[in-house]
């Protein structure tokens, strides 16, 4: 399947759905236009349009005999004559015509026809036909149609807003007008109730879109999802229909082939379809290239992902980070720790991940090794590891338990938590650790930064775009090649090998220096609030949709 063009009847004020025919520019008067005989201007449907104002000028042409009259102009709408103007004196003119409601609600065609030029146009035609005949050279001056050029067009307005500005000869259609009136609503399609990253991705988008006052339809993706469906934040607003022009579909690229089967072919047809994709390695898989066919463009959560996808993409790829905002837990740290049966006074390092995200990439062994090397288990610190996605990942769980068996001061939470409980767990701990090999964004890193926690994180891939030494604890890493396949991550690809000793040193520094924890945590929170707020990210959505509307 190849992404279809959006239906014209559903789109308002997109430049490619306007038409200009018969309008010309010249050097006689550079700041206006003229027509040879008739022109047609097609407007998209504009329900509620009351009137159109046409402005122009009668400019005497020096190449004509004195007192040559200006042509008259007939203005029609969808074949019905609305006005006739006949300037008698040089200077500006304008006329305003009422638009029938039936015409405004459909594709509106404004016709402009010159009157009083039939004879000179005929002579111009003869001049072109007999251009090589010296005996008929008298017809040649008429070819310039100078009489027609005396009636100039400067602008056309709809209910007081400029639609065409002919002083801008390279782009007379007003982008400002197009953007102001564009229908920018989003159908956000995803696993909105799922307890997994791609589900939270869709929920983040809802928050950002609504912060930007974009109309939103929340459409649950009908494709199979093995994650638990425990997030009820938006369940009451679920709908199967996608009424807006723009579909944004949150899923892994290969799932795109199943959308028509589960939602019907009409779901994507006639829409502007955007795939919201994440990918965690520098090279996008060749086997995924066919899935671009379903979309007009791709959005992604980081520049790291952008660079990987854009290198192979036939469609635009735009970075649209996740919006990080949620109610911060109000319970005291002591109460939160009691809720999760965590040590009351220990310095708690937290690591959490989804076993479905591939343990090899999330790299829990590095976190465990770093904590072991730090020696902090014997000094009142504890490592808390929270996992979910247990079904089908029993081997990975058993490997994790084995790694922790001989390490004192560790707490394993192996059960699903609601999003609110995840935030509470993050708030209950003192530091978040992510020694990942690669991240497409790093939601847990960003969430803990939003909560004002210092974060120790591999200094590579997407997390390096927002975590640095001014607001966190970046860990040195070297790049290595994968020696075997790990799910979609193919042998020979590149990812990071974080320096476990450096991570252990960060753990020791934070454990020993409460002031450092406070300073980095405050800076981390400020970064999230400034650059990743729903308002900031939603503004990026709006700007992009307005740009699309101006094409």
Structure description:
It is a single chain. By secondary structure, the protein is of the alpha/beta class. It folds into 3 domains: 154 residues, Galactose-binding domain-like (Jelly Rolls, Sandwich), CATH 2.60.120.260; 152 residues, 3-Layer(aba) Sandwich (Rossmann fold); 200 residues, Glycogen Phosphorylase B (Rossmann fold). The protein is 28% helix and 23% strand. It contains 16 helices and 23 strands. Strands 11-10-12-13-14-15 form a 6-stranded parallel sheet, sandwiched between helices. The protein has a 6-stranded parallel sheet with strand order 18-17-16-19-20-21, with helices on both faces. A 5-stranded antiparallel sheet has the order 1-2-7-4-5, with no helix packed on it. Helix 5 links the parallel strand 10 and strand 11. The relative contact order is 0.10.
């Amino acid at each position: 399947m190849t992404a279809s063009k959006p239906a014209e009847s559903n789109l308002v004020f997109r430049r490619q759905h306007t038409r200009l025919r018969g309008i010309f520019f010249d050097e006689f008067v550079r700041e206006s236009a003229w027509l040879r005989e008739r022109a047609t201007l097609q407007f998209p449907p504009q329900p509620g349009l009351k009137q159109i104002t046409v402005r122009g000028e009668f400019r005497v042409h020096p190449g004509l005999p004195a007192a040559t009259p200006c042509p008259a102009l007939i203005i029609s709408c969808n074949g019905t004559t609305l006005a006739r103007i006949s300037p008698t004196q040089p200077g500006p003119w304008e006329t305003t015509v009422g638009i029938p409601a039936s015409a405004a609600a459909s594709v509106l065609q404004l016709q402009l026809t010159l009157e009083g030029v039939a004879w000179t146009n005929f002579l111009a035609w003869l001049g072109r036909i007999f251009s090589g005949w010296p005996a008929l050279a008298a017809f040649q001056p008429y070819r310039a149609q100078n009489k027609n050029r005396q009636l100039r067009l400067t602008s056309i307005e709809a209910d007081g807003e400029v639609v065409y500005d002919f002083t801008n000869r390279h782009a007379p259609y007003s982008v400002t007008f197009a953007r102001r009136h564009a229908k920018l609503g989003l159908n956000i399609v995803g696993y909105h109730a799922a307890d997994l990253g791609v589900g939270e991705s869709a929920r983040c988008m809802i928050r950002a879109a609504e912060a930007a006052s974009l109309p939103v339809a929340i459409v649950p993706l009908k494709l199979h999802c093995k994650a638990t469906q425990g997030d009820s934040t938006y369940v009451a607003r679920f709908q199967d229909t996608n009424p807006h022009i723009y579909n944004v579909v949150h899923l892994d690229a290969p799932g795109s082939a199943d959308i028509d089967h589960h939602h019907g072919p009409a779901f994507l047809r006639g829409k502007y379809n955007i795939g919201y994709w994440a990918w965690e390695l520098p090279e996008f898989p060749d086997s995924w290239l066919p899935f671009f066919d379903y979309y007009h463009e791709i959005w992604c959560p980081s520049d790291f992902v952008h660079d990987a996808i854009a290198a192979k993409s036939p469609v635009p790829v735009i970075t649209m980070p996740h919006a990080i905002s949620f109610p911060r837990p109000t319970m005291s740290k002591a109460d939160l720790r009691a809720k999760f049966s965590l040590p009351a006074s220990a310095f708690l390092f937290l690591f959490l991940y989804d076993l479905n995200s591939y343990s090899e990439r999330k790299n829990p062994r590095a976190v465990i090794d770093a904590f072991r090397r730090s020696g902090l288990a014997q000094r009142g610190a504890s490592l808390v590891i929270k996992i979910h996605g247990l079904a089908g990942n029993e081997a990975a769980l058993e490997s994790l338990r084995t790694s922790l068996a001989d390490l004192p001061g560790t707490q394993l939470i192996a059960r699903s938590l609601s999003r609110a409980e995840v935030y509470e767990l993050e708030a209950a701990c003192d530091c978040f650790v992510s020694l990942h090999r690669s991240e497409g964004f790093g939601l847990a890193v960003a969430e803990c930064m939003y909560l004002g926690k210092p974060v120790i994180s591999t200094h590579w891939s997407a997390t390096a775009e927002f975590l640095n030494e001014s607001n966190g604890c970046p860990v040195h890493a070297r790049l290595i090649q994968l020696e075997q396949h790990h799910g979609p991550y193919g042998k020979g690809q590149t990812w990071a090998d974080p320096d476990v000793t450096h991570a252990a040193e960060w753990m020791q520094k934070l454990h020993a220096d409460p002031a450092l924890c406070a300073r980095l945590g405050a800076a981390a929170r400020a970064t999230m609030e400034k650059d990743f707020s729903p308002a900031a990210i939603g503004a990026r959505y709006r700007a992009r949709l307005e740009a699309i509307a101006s094409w």
